[in-house]
Amino acid sequence: MEKRPFSELGISPEILKAVDKMGFEEASPIQTAVIPFALAGRDVVGQSATGSGKTAAFAIPAIEKVDPRLRKVQVLVLCPTRELAVQVSEEFGKLAFFKKGVMEVPIYGGQSYERQFRALAAGAQVVIGTPGRVMDHMERGTLQLDALKVIILDEADRMLDMGFRDDIEHILKSVPAQRQCLFFSATMPRMIQELIKRYTREPEWIRIESLAQNAPQVEQIYFEVDRRSKIELLTRLIDLHDFRFGIVFCSTKIMVDELDDHLHARGYSTDRLHGDITQATRTRVMDKFRRRGFEFLIATDVAARGLDVDDLEVVFNFDLPNDAEDYTHRIGRTGRAGKKGMAFTFVAGRELYKMQNMIHYGRIKIRRERVPSLDEVEEAKGNVFFEKLKATLDAKKFRSHDQMIDRLLEQGYTSTDIASALIHLTQGDATEPVKPPTKPKAERVAANENYTPAPAAGPAPAAPVVRRAPVVSAAPVGSVERKPLPPAPKSGDKFAAQKRTYERKARTGHEPGFTPVAFNIGRQHLVTPADLVGKIAGVTRLPASIVGAIDIHEEHTHIDVADEHVAAVVAKLAGIRVKNQSLKVTVVPPGAA
Ligand code: ADP
Ligand code: MG
Fold this sequence. Notes:
The chain has a 7-stranded parallel beta sheet, with helices on both faces. The chain has 593 residues and is an alpha/beta fold. Helix content is 40%, strand content 15%. The structure holds adenosine-5'-diphosphate and magnesium ion.
């Protein structure tokens, strides 16, 4: 982004003096780009972020165009609000400080017409106003625009959002055809483009990319994906690239809750932020995330706004952002400080239309990719592991285990076999539990007060769906000796005992092989069998056939669950939200069903 001294832009000595007095050392990029064209009489369309200095970019050339001896309105600036009109007027005042005879006046609703009329009658050459009030003055004949040379639309996008389109068009149609037109807007939605096309002549388009948009370090990819497949795609991408630090943006609080529950249940280290979470908890979650206390933050735009983390490996747009601006904001948190970042955007159904609009009008540089297959994920995981293993060997960053290896060699195993067995243990098998949920439930409870603790079950046994390989680089190779958690609850475990007691009973009454489990949700919560079976299958990733009879009562529901999956269902469903209810899940004591 180019910046130049004001002295090189062809500005008069009076304004150079004013700029110096204001303490501006050099022209900002938008000023550097806009001022020479505007001074040359060209129409200009300027697009740059808030705070980039757009006001002086149009005010300086506008002041230069004013003939101080002519006491008629020569410059008209349209602004969305009275505050902005006053602010822009003040900036004109400062910039024109050494220009003798140049007067500016803000006109806006809420102030008496009388006062504004007097200023206009006194011969102000620059009028800064809101569209409604400008129209009023035009209709009353107190604002005459026959000598107008320059018309400026500041924050055009906001003015349209506020419903000023008709007023703006009316004003643009009533001013002399030979005027110069300067258009400024932070974004360029279709309506603005139409106005520009209709009311400017061969405008010079100037767009100063904001820091985030400019970040060439962010690789931007989108996927067209079925709404229901988004979670699967997300976990595939995380596994494929072996990401360890990122944000997943969702559009609603409900989606944040659901996704966090799902990911957590699948063994990913996550936490959540959204508007319903208390400030104290939010602060705690943010601190923890900054310290990398967990890997993925699931958040809404609003909740993530106060988070000053910008060295993320990846940003996921699980739901499409509202517009190009939000998109840019979100992805700007990755790819900083010379590091490469990635941004993945999920586009479902009709969102594709919105995505294409964003690409076109927001000039987003994003490419489409197809959803990676499971095989590709597995292969990539192998590659990631290979690289890590190699890096560990090259860096000699491991303790020596000669003794153990010698013992194995002595017993006749080859070094290749030993290494293969270790890789097998470390990598796990896709069908084998290799990693317990990264964070015990109890800790999540502490971090999140609207989480209902699970029943006394304690940390869940690993479900057979946990697919992430353990972090190799984070621990010495010796740690691979750690055994995966057993898939079934230990004997002596509270609900295992309960279950055993029940089984004895069940053999005499219930369908064999199934155990009734109680959920604290029932008819009064408008729950349907499909809701519950869907939730169970979704969270445990087990087939729906593990669920037997379902008995919905007023306040609770009994569901028969295949014996070998009772533990997983109890542990994983606890605390999950269904119908806005935080689930409590318990094995039904024998005789109570
Ligand atoms: P925008 O309209 O693009 O949001 P503003 O025109 O309101 O930005 O400018 C933002 C702030 O930067 C103002 O306080 C302004 O005085 C200041 N500013 C503008 N140009 C310069 C410059 N060249 N050097 C230093 N500060 C500047
Ligand atoms: Mg501005």
